[in-house]
Amino acid sequence: MANDDELLRLEYESASRLLGSLTEIRFKLLALVPALTGAVVALTSAGSTGVELLAIGGLGLVATSGVLAYELRNGELCRRATDRVTNLETQLLPGGPLIGGPGRAPKLFGVVPASQHLGVGLVYGAALGGWVYLVVWGAAKALGAGTHSRPLGLVVGVIAALVIVRDVVIAER
After folding, report:
1. How many domains are contained in the chain?
2. Mean pLDDT of 75-83
3. Domain range holding 9?
4. pLDDT tens, 24-70?
5. Which pTM does this prediction carry?
């Protein structure tokens, strides 16, 4: 029968692998989502019909929202795995956990405290804001707003992006 120390080490290895896998998935999504969104938004032409813009934007909005829902759940699992790994490191490692407690956070642009929460919020805010831009532009164009449809889409997209950044940062805490 294995002793308690061996069981703790097995649990630590398992929790560390889980944390590594969750982190790898997160990084892949954080690279893919903005790249795909940016490419589609950039390649969408002013010659597209309102219905085409609505369809492209709507599909992107729904798909990205689904990925964000997955990301938020993944974030919760990461937090739990991190807590567990930290607890196990406290028990197993003579110097305590490998990653210490919260230190002084660097500042983004010298102003905003940088964090993973903010990073995730910015990525998904920008992506979802881009899709909202296409949806509103398409809806306004389909309803006959003419030359005002694109600027309207832009304003609503930016507002949506800012709201989403705030909401994701709050949800990730």
Report:
1. 1
2. 89
3. 4-172
4. 999 999 999 999 999 999 999 888 999 999 999 999 999 999 999 99
5. 0.85
